[in-house]
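Inverse folding, one chain.
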């Protein structure tokens, strides 16, 4: 090793091109410590002879040295060009490797020249290098990688000596390099891709010479950029590249081809083959890949060509496909459905099916596509699909859907507005309130029986806030003596919305109504008042002749938390009408528990089946699990099938409640241990 070092020191002191040649020729046999010194010396001496030697022996160098040279292609341009045009096969492979590793798109034309004029033995490598450059140029890391190479080249302050005739360290020039630019990266990312695209398109033109499908893939990788020369080539049905691509798109198994199916639709010579390929992709459940370029689905030319597809279930992504689809692809899926669903009704249904499984990024596209389709339909047929978006957690989607239904004057709009008046979003609340107020009461009145209990409370409470005439309208309905059903509905609204104090005088009169249904509803509504007069009137109603009135009275007093009627409750707890009896026992549970429990046990053992059924309701309502064994016995041995069924339901309720309680207990324990 010492001998090599001495020889090296002597040689480097001689200023002669033959020394550079000798140093380069020693690279294959030099040891690992001398090689870096030889390479650095040849770079510093800056002669073409030395640069040629570095390129020719590139394959002999350690990987770290190869990487260093790949970052300094500015200094080797002329040598790379000459070896590429006149070197042997091995040397030309070195040129390919240097271009591949340097990521310098200005050198891509050398790969094209090798594909056109070089030996067939290296065609596959040259095409593969173009393919890799195309992948790299569009990768997210491209910009960062290019910036690092530019910094590396600039920091070395390399001269352009290898572009000059033999001589040592010639002066720098203002121009030079493979594309006439400076020694650094030249233009930005867009320029680099254009340079690469030009080289690949030139290679595509001579496809008949090299027959490398990787070149076709490389031009597809750069898509969907506008094609220059490649567009003319692929529009020629007789060109070998067109024929090959036509075969690839008919049965597209390559993801690169699959992702470019939509851009290729606009090439007339390929349209029919692409449509055939899309059918193939549908059967292979790979349609989601063409959605990488899904923005093209908005183009009329693309939509027109896709309209020729026969609608089959394979064209609708399956559940399995939806699990594999990316949010970016999902965002374009509504536009795909719009292209392949031949009727708006089918499109709306498919979009509705898509909504529950779509990621947040795709929801706006789904809603927008759905609204466009719904515009062509009577709103009463499709309004419920839009209304589903009004329960969405996204404020923008909720507001868009609600505004659309308001504009279309959907028949079921009022109940929806009533629920949205208490939305978590201020903009939605305001929108609902602005349109609900003028017709609010009548809409609530007409839809009252169709609303759930929670919806009644939500809508009614909201309307009370925004409609100052609410109580006036309700009183008018309450005093409608000609129609019992109207009065019953009014009393139901008063009781549900807890508004008894506003109508106490009118309700008092109705407690004496000869119609027992109205009288019972009136005492129930009176329980939402808080006056002493209401309490005294309800106490008197405990002696009413109708069992329904007595039962509702007990509930009303219990709601008011009034407990000065214990003796009367004790009497009712043993009477012969099952409903007031069960209510009385339930009220006594908070006053005289032991006495009430005994009364409940007696009721469960009553000979009358309806009394046992009411007792079971009370056990379930109060969650009296201590009576589970007695209830289980009724579920097995009671002679009445209705009672047995009801008892079984109570047992099931207890089991579910115990499971929930157990799970909550475990969660609390885990939480406590983690704190």
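Residues assigned per position:
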């Amino acid at each position: 090793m010492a001998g090599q070092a001495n020889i090296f020191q002597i040689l480097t002191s001689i200023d002669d091109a033959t020394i550079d040649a000798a140093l380069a020729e020693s690279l294959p046999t030099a040891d690992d410590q001398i090689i870096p010194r030889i390479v650095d010396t040849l770079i510093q001496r800056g002669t073409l002879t030395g640069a040629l030697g570095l390129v020719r022996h590139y394959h002999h160098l350690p990987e770290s040295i190869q990487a260093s040279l790949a970052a300094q292609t500015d200094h080797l341009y002329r040598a790379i060009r000459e070896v590429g045009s006149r070197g042997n096969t091995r040397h030309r492979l070195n040129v390919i490797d240097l271009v591949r590793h340097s990521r310098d798109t200005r050198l891509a034309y050398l790969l094209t020249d090798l594909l056109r004029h070089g030996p067939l033995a290296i065609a596959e490598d040259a095409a593969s290098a173009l393919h890799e450059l195309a992948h790299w140029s569009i990768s997210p890391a491209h910009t960062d990688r290019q910036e690092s190479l530019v910094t590396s080249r600039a920091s070395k302050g390399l001269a352009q000596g290898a572009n000059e005739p033999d001589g040592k360290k010639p002066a720098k020039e203002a121009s030079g390099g493979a594309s006439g630019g400076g020694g650094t990266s030249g233009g930005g990312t867009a320029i680099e891709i254009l340079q690469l695209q030009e080289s690949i398109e030139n290679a595509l033109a001579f496809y008949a010479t090299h027959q490398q499908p990787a070149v076709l893939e490389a031009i597809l990788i750069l898509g969907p950029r506008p094609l220059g020369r490649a567009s003319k080539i692929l529009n020629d049905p007789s060109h070998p590249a067109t024929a090959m691509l036509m075969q690839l798109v008919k049965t597209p198994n390559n993801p690169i081809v699959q992702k470019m199916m939509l851009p290729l639709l606009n090439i007339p010579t390929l349209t029919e083959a692409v449509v055939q390929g899309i059918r193939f992709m549908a059967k292979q459940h790979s349609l989601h890949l063409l959605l990488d370029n899904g923005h093209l689905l908005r183009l009329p030319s693309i939509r027109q060509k896709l309209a020729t597809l026969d609608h089959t279930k394979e064209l609708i992504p399956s559940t399995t496909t939806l699990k594999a689809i990316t949010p970016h692809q999902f965002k374009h899926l509504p536009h795909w459905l719009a292209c392949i669903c031949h009727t708006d009704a089918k499109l709306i249904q498919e979009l509705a099916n898509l909504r529950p499984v779509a990621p947040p990024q795709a929801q706006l596209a789904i809603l927008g596509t759905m609204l466009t389709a719904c515009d062509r339909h009577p709103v009463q047929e499709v309004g419920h699909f839009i209304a589903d978006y009004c329960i969405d957690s996204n404020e923008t989607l909720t507001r868009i859907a609600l505004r659309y239904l308001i504009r279309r004057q959907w028949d079921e709009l009022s109940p929806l507005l009533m629920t949205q008046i208490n939305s978590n979003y201020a903009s939605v609340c305001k929108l609902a309130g602005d349109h609900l107020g003028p017709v609010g009461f009548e809409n609530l009145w007409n839809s009252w029986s169709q609303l759930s209990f929670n919806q009644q409370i939500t809508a009614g409470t909201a309307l009370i806030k925004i409609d100052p005439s609410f109580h006036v309208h309700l009183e008018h309905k309450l005093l409608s003596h000609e129609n019992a059903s109207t009065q019953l509905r009014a009393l139901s609204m008063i009781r549900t919305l807890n508004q008894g104090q506003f109508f106490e005088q009118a309700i008092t009169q109705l407690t004496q109504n000869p119609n027992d249904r109205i009288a019972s509803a009136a005492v129930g509504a009176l329980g939402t008042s808080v006056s002493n007069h209401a309490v005294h009137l309800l106490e008197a109603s405990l002696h009413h002749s109708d069992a329904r009135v007595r039962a509702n009275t007990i509930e009303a007093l219990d709601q008011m938390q009034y407990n000065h009627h214990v003796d009367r409750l004790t009497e009712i707890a043993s009477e012969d009408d099952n409903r007031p009896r069960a209510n009385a026992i339930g009220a006594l549970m908070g006053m005289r528990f032991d006495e009430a429990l005994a009364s409940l046990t007696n009721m469960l053992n009553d000979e009358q089946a309806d009394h046992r059924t009411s007792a079971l309701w009370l056990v379930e309502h109060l969650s009296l699990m201590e009576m589970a064994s007695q209830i289980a016995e009724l579920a097995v041995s009671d002679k009445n099938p209705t009672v047995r069924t009801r008892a079984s339901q109570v047992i099931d309720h207890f089991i579910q409640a115990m499971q929930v309680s157990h799970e909550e207990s475990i969660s609390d324990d885990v939480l406590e241990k983690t704190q």
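The two ends are 66 Å apart (CA to CA). The chain is about 65% helix and 0% strand.
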